[in-house]
Description:
- This protein is α+β, with helices and mostly antiparallel strands.
- The chain contains 14 helices and 16 strands.
- The chain has helices at residues 20-24, 68-73, 77-87, 120-124, 131-150, 203-206, 213-230, 240-249, 260-269, 280-285, 287-290, 325-330, 359-371, 420-428; strands at residues 29-31, 35-43, 47-54, 60-67, 98-103, 107-113, 118-119, 153-154, 163-165, 171-173, 180-181, 348-355, 377-380, 385-389, 395-403, 409-416.
- The strands form four sheets. A six-stranded antiparallel beta sheet has the order 1-2-3-4-6-5. A five-stranded antiparallel beta sheet has the order 12-16-15-14-13, covered by helices on one side.
- This is non-specific serine/threonine protein kinase.
- It catalyses: L-seryl-[protein] + ATP = O-phospho-L-seryl-[protein] + ADP + H(+); L-threonyl-[protein] + ATP = O-phospho-L-threonyl-[protein] + ADP + H(+).
Amino acid sequence: MSSEIQERPGEASSSASASAAEEVGLPEVSLMGRYEIGRLLGRGAFAKVYYARSVSTGQGVAIKAVSKQKVVKGGFVAQVKREIAIMRRLRHPNIVRLFEVLATRTKIYFVMEFAKGGELFAKVAKGRFSEDLCRRYFQQLISAVGYCHSRGVFHRDLKPENLLLDENWGLRVSDFGLSAVDDQVRADGLLHTLCGTPAYVAPEILAKRGYDGAKVDVWSCGIILFVLNAGYLPFNDPNLMVMYRKIYKGEFRCPKWTSPDLRRFLLRLLDTNPETRITVDEIVSDPWFRKGYEEIKLADEDDFDAKDFSEDGDGDSGENKCLNAFDIISFSSGFDLSGLIRDSGEPVRSERFVSAEAPERVLERVEEVAAGEEGVSAARTKGDAVRVEGPSGELVAAVRARRLTAELLVVEVQWRDEPGRGIWTEKLRPQLEGLIYRPDEPVSGDP
């Protein structure tokens, strides 16, 4: 997805450069008053990517607007969840930075670093690179890939279209939508999901057996290096099955201008046997790779925690922490109050609203309003929820407030049809109107 993000030089007049404002029929589009949305850069199955500018800093960013409805209906919840969770933790000069994630009723917004130079693919499509330039980009790629692997992240879709260039022509790895993490590894120690782009996919994936995520990334890096040096793919054929057979057998030939050292190095990268294929540590020690190599020193960061990627929960045991990706996408996991409102056969209804107040203030206000109503009481639960009880002490509603951004939070209310409907809709909600955040932008202005 992220390969669609970036502006390609010389394409400002194309149809993909039409402004978001023109597309939605408004003179201008502002996202939550924080970003001015500009021209459309690209679109995919369930996302559109825009150039935007921060209102406060003037910094140019790329904003990917993802349709919640399409994500859920298309079964991409886990994929988008992982992409957000992974990107928010990766801090490396050769990886596209995710600044923040925002959400409205219908959209999720990735606010990301804008790579002004466009895709590496567009540059190599104009002609093959010199061996020194191939080495320089490959060094940056391996630095990023090795960093990901050390944190248990495997990209699984590395290709020139997912490698972007900044204003100084430095490389940025993007599009972590197909990435896997350590906790997806099965008992045999391998990954099993079939994914990737055909021309870059490793032979062990084609064999439909388990595979090592790090080793398939190394194979894809080998394909990328071959393309940079040759200007064309090592395995290619109009017939997909013929191409797959070539990949499986490792049938490729280096162009005549390839130096002996680079030829030897490519053969180690494109070794069809994952057990003997070169590893990232061995790549970094290889004489061809090390020429002019300067290792990047990174500051110590928080440990990567597998719970951040759990598909069954939000991995958040603290109070009032920011919503994780699944919450933002579906507004369900993090707001599931079923532990408070247990099944009694009555339908459970829910309502959500955004507030700019502090979570503590919202919950205090709910308690204050409930205390002022006859036959209604409220009590704080462990964590960040309030139980609303009826005249007999029965639980009729539950309210929870969770962070959406640094400035905004989402308040989720669940109640039973009877008597919760009357207590919430007629007694409590009218007195909480002042807590609701109402941005100036109309819903129809969502990019």
